[in-house]
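FORM 12-B: Structure-to-Sequence Request
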């Protein structure tokens, strides 16, 4: 090979949903990597998920354990995960205990033992857990230069045997600058576990990865019975596609409101319906989904403030059957209420449902409930995260209706407490007005990016059949203040 030749680096799939995207397509094969973080962060589970995804009888995985959990105890817990495959144990996944060597001998002896096992097996993946224990117990009085030489020789041996290596260790971020282990590594992956009030938030960061562009920043991940699942921050970052001016219009289930919007909601738009408590935001969203089901368009509803059975029961109060569509798969009701939720996780859940069902309509009810379901640390980025989420969803071609509660001040027409009205293509504002000693309801279409819309302020009611829009409110001025005054008759 000449100096000008370009080497193609193959990618090793991790078997972790979302992680390959964060890494830029997978792990560089034969790379020498470190998985670091505090205790309980998920380092061992991540390593097991990777080895079970890649190990075969021809190219097995070698997992070296050191003074931590014995392999039997480790497997007792790891077998609870769905990625665990008992058939791979022995031939595909092999465990080697280095404890005795580490306790009684020096780094050279540890290296010789690792090399001996690697040469005998020819593994595709090698894990040393915990590598920091190896260094502490075997190095003794060894200086930094000797330790760096040991790590370099270990990396050279494993790479020459075409093994992708992971050294697992409990490190602090302050050690990154001076620890020679991090200097030699091709990839450095940091797992964080933060306690925020009643929430535990897990995050993953690629601090270093030679030879390819990874996605920067902190990415949320969760450990479930399926194992580790990562939620990349890349959704929605590439901007929104241009929309054709002649898109079809989706009826919302309220004919008079369709007419006010110029024929309905343009397909692929994001519509924000804002109003105070009890003004009918959820009723409108329910009718929007029901109308889609009626014309054969599957729908998804993400709710945060009531359970799916309660949501279906409320729809039944308006004469709408949401039970049958859920059974036949045309309606998916996603209930998300963990205390450590992230926007990226919600986005992944909805996008998966869209892909699975072919949904054309999505409802998010409500943004206030969504924010409350987030872990406290995610609420500070709520606005930016919503931007990515709405962009990602509308690029799939679905039409989104989001509800948001605003506090009625009777002095201004607020559109959202989050300053996110710019994220929406279309906005409908509901509000209360006091007329002749009665509290009545009025709506108006504030904006529609796709074209013209009615400028009327119309009265509406919530009936047993849902939201019904009446005629334009006339004879008053100051309607949007909520305290209108009769228009004085012209002087004679």
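FORM 12-B RESPONSE
SEQUENCE OUT:
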């Amino acid at each position: 090979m000449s100096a000008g030749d370009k080497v193609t680096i193959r990618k090793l799939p991790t078997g972790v949903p979302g992680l390959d995207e964060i890494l830029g397509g997978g792990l560089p094969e034969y790379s020498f990597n470190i998985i670091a973080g505090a205790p309980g962060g998920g380092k061992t589970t991540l390593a097991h998920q990777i080895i079970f995804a890649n190990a075969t009888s021809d190219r097995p995985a070698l997992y070296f354990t050191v003074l931590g959990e014995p392999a039997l105890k480790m497997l007792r817990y790891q077998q609870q995960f769905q990625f665990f495959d008992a058939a791979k144990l022995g031939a595909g996944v092999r465990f080697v205990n280095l404890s005795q060597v580490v306790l009684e001998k020096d780094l050279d002896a540890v290296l010789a033992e690792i090399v001996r096992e690697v040469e005998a097996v020819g593994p595709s993946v090698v894990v040393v857990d915990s590598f920091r224990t190896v260094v502490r117990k075997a190095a003794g009085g060894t200086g930094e230069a000797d330790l760096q030489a040991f790590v370099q020789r270990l990396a050279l041996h494993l790479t020459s045997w075409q093994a992708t290596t992971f050294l697992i260790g409990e490190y602090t971020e302050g050690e990154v600058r001076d620890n020679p282990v991090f200097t030699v590594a091709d990839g450095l992956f940091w797992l964080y576990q933060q306690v925020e009030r009643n929430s535990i938030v897990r995050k993953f960061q690629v601090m270093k990865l030679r030879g390819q562009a990874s996605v920067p920043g902190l990415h949320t991940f969760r450990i479930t019975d399926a194992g580790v699942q990562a939620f990349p921050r890349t959704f929605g970052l590439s901007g929104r596609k241009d929309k054709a001016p002649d898109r079809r219009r989706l009826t919302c289930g309220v004919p008079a409101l369709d007419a006010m919007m110029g024929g309905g909601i343009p397909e692929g738009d994001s519509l924000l319906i804002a109003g105070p408590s009890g003004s009918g935001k959820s009723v409108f969203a329910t009718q929007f989904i029901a109308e889609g089901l009626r014309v054969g368009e599957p729908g998804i509803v993400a709710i945060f403030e009531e359970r799916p059975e309660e949501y279906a029961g409320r729809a039944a109060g308006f004469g709408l059957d949401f039970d049958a569509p859920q059974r036949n798969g045309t309606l998916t009701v996603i209930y998300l209420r963990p205390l450590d939720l992230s926007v990226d996780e919600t986005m992944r859940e909805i996008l998966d449902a869209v892909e699975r069902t072919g949904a054309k309509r999505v409802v998010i009810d409500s943004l206030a409930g969504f924010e409350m379901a987030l872990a406290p640390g995610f609420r500070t980025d709520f606005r930016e995260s919503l931007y990515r989420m709405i962009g990602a969803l509308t690029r799939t071609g679905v039409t989104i209706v989001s509800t948001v509660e605003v506090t009625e001040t009777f002095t201004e027409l607020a559109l959202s407490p989050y300053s996110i009205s710019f994220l929406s293509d279309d906005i409908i504002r509901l509000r209360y007005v006091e007329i002749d000693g009665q509290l009545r309801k009025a709506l108006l279409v504030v904006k529609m990016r796709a074209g013209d819309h009615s400028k009327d302020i119309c009265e509406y009611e919530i009936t047993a059949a849902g939201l019904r829009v009446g005629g334009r409110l006339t004879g008053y001025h100051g309607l949007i203040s909520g305290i209108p005054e009769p228009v004085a008759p012209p002087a004679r």
